[in-house]
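Anyone up for a design puzzle?
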């Protein structure tokens, strides 16, 4: 679970869905869409899956993309000193 799982707990179900959709739209615009200001380097099929399923704003929407980003990230940068 990534960002979309950490929303306010006091919201109604409908409120949470609205917040997830807004958060997903922001993440997609900034990192997945064509011309994104901070694009992520992931496989095209994973990017397309995110784009195709964006309207659902499911909690696991970005899981496959997150795994690819962390898998490709140099291990030396993941270790805190």
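Challenge accepted. My sequence:
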């Amino acid at each position: 679970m990534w960002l979309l799982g950490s929303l306010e707990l006091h919201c109604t179900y409908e409120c949470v869905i609205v917040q997830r959709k807004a958060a997903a739209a922001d993440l997609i615009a900034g990192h997945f869409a064509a011309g994104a200001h901070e694009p992520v380097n992931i496989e095209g099929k994973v990017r397309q899956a995110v784009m195709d399923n964006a309207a659902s704003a499911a909690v696991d929407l970005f899981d496959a993309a997150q795994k690819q980003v962390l898998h490709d990230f140099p291990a030396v940068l993941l270790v805190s000193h």
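A detail worth pointing out: Residues 3-78 form a domain with the Regulator of G-protein Signalling 4; domain 2 fold (CATH 1.10.167).
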